[in-house]
Amino acid sequence: MTKRILVVDDEPSITTLLKYNLEKEHFIVDTAYDGEVAIEMATSLAYDFIILDLMLPRVNGLDVTKHLRHEKIETPIIMLTAKDEVVDKIIGLEVGADDYLTKPFSPKELIARIRAVERRIDKMNKSNKENQTQATLEIGEIVIYPNDYQVLKNDNELSLTKKEFELLLYFMKRQDRIISRDELMQTIWQDDMYHLSRTVDIHVSHLREKIEDDPKKPLYIKTVRGFGYKFQEPTQ
Known about the structure:
- The structure is a single chain.
- By secondary structure, the protein is of the alpha/beta class.
- It has two domains: 4-124, Response regulator (Rossmann fold, 3-Layer(aba) Sandwich), CATH 3.40.50; 132-231, Orthogonal Bundle (Arc Repressor Mutant, subunit A).
- Helix content is 43%, strand content 20%.
- A five-stranded parallel sheet has the order 2-1-3-4-5, with helices on both faces. It has a four-stranded antiparallel sheet with strand order 6-7-8-9, covered by helices on one side.
- Strand 3, helix 3 (61-70) and strand 4 form a beta-alpha-beta unit.
- It is elongated.
């Protein structure tokens, strides 16, 4: 099936170049030049990928991403930035971007990133199918239903992103075992090598905010300094 991509950048030369090269790879490509139009298009049409510039007129790329994630639109987003600063990349990942590229970049590099995201999604879908045979897991007040992609705490459903769900499932299946950041990167992010080393910490922090009564004093996901994390049943 031919996949559809939305390219959002206020520089026509960039959108034209990317559209040309992506269409050569047999993608259907739509373009937008500001964040407000991007939100309208992304919420009204089904896209397989969104290539999103950070600095946009009217609504910037970070706010576009936050809006789409708030609306439960989980389309993979690759963010483009002219700034080569770690903080911009981290913020992009924190608000829900799947990857980033620093300008200038080659169309071939962008296509390689898209293919990496495709591979990750395919493996995740395969993993989800395998999870359908898994039993319900319950630790403390948390119950996870792999078949239904559902998590409850005290009978209240929690809203987790796909990555947060995968992390929680991985942790709960390995209760009381110390799990390193490298193991999580290799397993949850698989062969996508473009993420920052802080990606794991960022996602664990977000997960704690949703499952812990006090994220600053976590009872479930414990940090094991120098090693990684350990998921355990609360002792109090």
